[in-house]
Amino acid sequence: MKEQVIAGIDVGGTTIKIAFITEDGEIKKKWEITTNQKENGKYIMVETAASIKQQLESSWELTAAGVGAPGFIDVEQGFIYEAVNLGWKEYELKKELEALLQIPVVADNDANLAAGGEKWKGAGEGARNLLAVTLGTGVGGGIIAGGQIIHGESGMAGEIGHITALKEGGAPCNCGKRGCLETVASATGIARLGLEAVQREKKGYLMEKMQSVGTVTAKDVLDGAKLGDPVAEKVVDEAMEHLGLALANLCNSLNPETIVLGGGVSKAGDFIIDKIKASFQKYAIPKIGRETKINLAALGNDAGVIGAAWLAKEFFVKEEG
Amino acid sequence: MKEQVIAGIDVGGTTIKIAFITEDGEIKKKWEITTNQKENGKYIMVETAASIKQQLESSWELTAAGVGAPGFIDVEQGFIYEAVNLGWKEYELKKELEALLQIPVVADNDANLAAGGEKWKGAGEGARNLLAVTLGTGVGGGIIAGGQIIHGESGMAGEIGHITALKEGGAPCNCGKRGCLETVASATGIARLGLEAVQREKKGYLMEKMQSVGTVTAKDVLDGAKLGDPVAEKVVDEAMEHLGLALANLCNSLNPETIVLGGGVSKAGDFIIDKIKASFQKYAIPKIGRETKINLAALGNDAGVIGAAWLAKEFFVKEEG
To answer: Which GO terms describe its cellular component (chains A, B) (predicted)?
Structure first.
């Protein structure tokens, strides 16, 4: 009998990550192809399906596929309202891939699937209630409650980057508001706060970076803070104070078992986890402050494909027994 | 054939509200009995079951019961960790009532069931994603996402009253923190802010109340604000600004279709809804600010029993066809 595998697909603006994954969550094979953005992304699924067929070994049976994409998605229909980075607009993702592969397909937002991956096999393994937070260029989120991904009325649930961190005097955000969490706790936000700090203070680790390289990145700020530079550490403290408050307020309402932190900023590791925890515990209901785990993401770039396979398993694979 | 009915039960510290409700949500009969708090509430379910048997008409068949109680509940087990107002602690609510009535029983937190009631037959009718907010002595909440009540890891989901509204200088809260939403937007909070304002300003509608009655209530503040008293209106504006921000931050993460506002403070009606909307739209992602409905609760005191029956129907009644 052939071994049954699920295809997990994570479509990004530059590459498409693909993996064959067993129903137990074991990655049998994983690879990437380049995202073909030509003609509003119309070749993306064609090339993905061709690559999947080519990579499938004869001893495997492909039973289903899950696919994650950056954008707003109607999960029931597998319909993309818009995925700006890919050129897709009002695109029948699920139907197209089902026609190409002749297997059932489920599609969801990539941040939601990263949350699903961490829940299934990562830093929130087995959690029925989980909040996944990505601190990258922006601040993204995925919410799992009662074992299910929360989508909200128009697929916008999890947009925690647009929680208002600064009621007044905040920096403008891409969403049209000011003072969003994203403007202070993303890599972009930390770099901006670092630049402002060095222009104000004109000294220390960040000033050296400024003089040698001409700018300051989020990594510089985090590195400087770790080295004990007071200007850099004050910036990190400010960013993590805002993040801890926003997470506490969310957890007072959602009561997850675990918060999983991923994305570039999370590479600073326990150094920022400790700062986030201090702020979180200050603002959370005491029981929630004590009991909520805050973990670093464990799956890295594999979270998306594993989460996509998890969702396909949940949708299509019958439990035995 | 007998008409099938579900018992909806809403256990409060003073009275127990009970209703027979059809599977379509029609209340056939409703009544109340007094809550017997003797011996840690051990007679509450005995007396509830006896009353149900007595009120059941011979033309009805009782198929299931739903019961709401104030406290933290393990819904799968129907187990009450603690319901302080009733004297219950580690109490097998579901098992006890099932033994008494010989029908399947489901139990949940009363605020969650009020949300369920408004979702089924009230101001959020049919919504699959709904946030119910009760502005009473405290600020309570119930979250429905993807058609399901969100419980969180230890039954604490929906505790939106403990979102931190004031990072600094806030009043102490029962939860042990300071500056919780509940300290400014509940009836208690509005009364406190009103008292502080009149002691500071010593004039206007609230000063008259203070001089004639010796204190100021939340209703006085809301009445004064409606009459155009500037001291009172400033208090209401402050409270609703905090509430609108907290709701916007939650909705940026949960993307509900509808927010339903109930409890004593909500009796001020459109006057406060308009203020909440103004703050909400300032802080929500623009699309969420435009699309999220903010409605007054429609079911009043019936929300709990209707929500209890809804949950029992969801758990136990098979859909036809």
So the answer is: cytoplasm
Q: In angstroms, rounded to a whole number, what is the distance separating the alpha carbons of residues A99 and B278?
A: 47
- Quick check: B175 and B139 in contact, CB under 8 A? no
Cβ–Cβ below 8 Å for B253 and A157: yes
How many Å lie between the alpha carbon of A279 and the closest alpha carbon of chain B? 11
Q: What are the C-alpha distances in Å from A227 to residues A268, B37, B119, B229?
A: 12, 60, 53, 56
Residue B321 in any domain: the answer is no
pLDDT at A305: 97
Please report how the helices B110-121 and B303-316 are oriented relative to each other, as an axis angle in degrees rounded to 10.
80
Chunked into runs of 10 residues, chain A (321 residues) has average pLDDT values of: 95 95 97 95 97 97 96 90 89 97 96 95 94 93 95 93 95 92 96 97 96 96 98 98 98 97 94 98 95 96 96 84 38
CB contact under 8 A, A148 and B146: yes
Euclidean distance between CA atoms A118 and A109, whole angstroms = 15
Q: What is the CATH classification number for the domain harbouring A52? A: 3.30.420.40
Q: Whole domain around residue B33: which residue ranges?
A: 3-118+301-316
Task: Spell out a b/e string for A25-47, using b for 16 or more CB atoms within 10 Å of the CB, else e.
Answer: bebeebebbebbeeeebeebbee
What's the rounded Cα separation, in Å, for the pair A98 and A17? 18
What was the ipTM of the complex prediction?
0.92
Within 8 A of A162 by CB-CB distance, chain B residues are 252, 285
| Strands A88-91 and A79-83, bridge-based pairing | antiparallel
